[in-house]
Design goal:
Length: 352
């Protein structure tokens, strides 16, 4: 297959920008699903959505006796309206492992179930240094923060009259920028990997490559809350999860490398599968790192806890400042695309 990934740089960045611009906090698939459906059509893949909301692309292989899987999660961290205070302040609950320190001051929309979007800002309850002695030090947590609506509201009834209710999703501004081949955005975890897989599908189509077995891409909507991968596509014997690579402390991964995760908080990944990926990375002379992710879970852990008899491994481009103001580089993306293609080409070696 084509290995000159640089030809796909524009495709990757165009795709990732569209994915990032489409809000999909964990569990909210209404807007991302039609976009993914269109990408499946473009890739010439069979498309289905399972009952759990995971979007599955199937690229037909020479044989349909078996299938291999690749996954990336479409869901991101988010906030949801929890309640409305008597004074009209909107209180929220976190979706997934949000770090509220770096959401303080972020512009957002509140999306009602009737489909209206209201502009707003995430703030602490001590938002002004001219007034509150603890403005700088107040702990950023759910109890100490609220959402300020850009509407003339003075009480809970004013907010209710707009149609805002508990359970409404909050969409942050993503602040997406591409600078010198760096991608900066909320949240590259894991929309960077979603766009990697869409680029892989595009390369397969452009090169006319027919894989040995069916290839199934799973894009799930509940990874950030731990159970996205609990149900996987029928018939797969191996799943390569693509998720962000960790960067920092004693880790070897960075924004220019593909990280191969040997173990995360849930335990080790498949030993032989991980070795297979390291061997492919060496053969292709990729810039890669093998790391232990200290505070991390993935769709593979969810898949195994869900009782699936499938081999599992994890790779991903290094993402700096993860779950914050994230950044990665096209070098790391290119290395991840190449390793994903190598897995697709050689996956029959993983059959036990
Ligand atoms: Zn992730």
């Amino acid at each position: 297959m084509i290995q000159n990934i640089v030809n796909y740089k524009n495709y990757f960045f165009d795709t990732v920008k569209k994915i990032l611009a489409t809000p999909s906090p964990t569990g909210y698939y209404e807007q991302i699903e039609p976009l993914m459906r269109a990408y499946a059509k473009e890739a010439g893949a069979k498309y289905e959505v399972n009952n759990k909301g995971s979007m599955i692309f199937t690229i037909s292989g020479k044989s349909h006796d078996r299938a291999i899987g690749l996954s990336a999660h479409c869901d991101t961290l988010g906030l949801m309206v929890r309640s409305i205070s008597a004074n009209g302040d909107i209180r929220f609950t976190c979706l997934g492992g949000v770090c509220l320190n770096n959401l303080d001051g972020e512009y957002c929309f509140i999306h009602t179930r009737e489909g209206k979007d209201y502009r707003a800002t995430v703030l602490t309850l001590s938002p002004s240094v001219h007034v509150f002695p603890d403005a700088r030090d107040r702990l950023r947590n759910e109890e100490n923060m609220y959402i300020r609506l850009d509407e003339k509201v003075h009480c809970a009834d004013d907010v209710l009259a707009l149609g805002i209710r508990a359970g409404d999703y909050v969409f942050f501004d993503t602040r997406t920028e591409v600078v010198n081949d760096f991608l900066k955005s909320r949240f590259i975890d894991d929309k960077g990997s979603v766009a990697v897989l869409l680029t892989v599908a595009k390369i397969m189509k452009d090169s006319g490559y027919v894989p040995e077995y069916d290839v199934k891409f799973m894009f799930d909507m509940f990874e950030e809350v731990g159970h996205g991968g609990a149900v996987v596509p029928e018939g797969i014997f191996a799943l390569l999860a693509l998720d962000m690579g960790c960067v920092g402390l004693d880790l070897q991964g960075n924004e220019y490398k593909v990280s191969i995760c040997a173990k995360d908080s849930g335990g080790p990944y498949d030993y032989g599968f991980t070795t297979f990926l390291i061997d492919r990375a060496k053969e292709l002379k990729l810039d890669y790192a093998v790391d232990i992710f200290p505070k991390y879970g993935s769709d593979v852990g969810a898949m195994w806890r869900g009782g699936n008899n499938v081999r599992g491994a994890l790779i991903g481009s290094g993402v700096q400042a993860s779950h914050g103001l994230e950044r990665t580089h096209f070098d790391g993306i290119a290395n991840t695309i190449k390793l994903s293609l190598a897995y697709i080409e050689r996956a029959s070696e993983l059959i036990i």
